[in-house]
Amino acid sequence: MKGQSYVILSIIFIIVVAIFAVINVEPVQVDYLFGSGQAPLILVILFSVLMGGIITAAAGIVKVINLQRERKSLRSENKHLKEKLEKNQPLSKESPVNPTSPKQTKEEGGGSKE
After folding, report:
1. Where are the alpha helices (H) located in the chain, listed in sequence order?
2. Locate the Lipopolysaccharide assembly protein A domain: which residues (predicted)?
3. Of 3, 31, 93, 113, which alpha carbon lies 20 to 30 A from 105's?
């Protein structure tokens, strides 16, 4: 449901930008870094929206990559801690073991703040 609402909002945004761009077709003065020139306003608008989308997508991709790295390191740490726990305390099938003791919880910041 959440993904569908993003798609619908994206389509509405694209339609609004397209209508806005089609209404504005007059040539305008564009100042570049090393000069200036004239370009149709529709191209300036569409190029600006395209660049904004590319920059936003690039930032999102960087965030996703960082989160995937963090997830991978946390999974390996979790696996390592489970193996260490199994070596120190054999697990029985009848009684579930709580891997966090009060000492560990306090060290991890779960205890009372001083």
Report:
1. 2-23, 41-88, 102-107
2. 24-86
3. 93
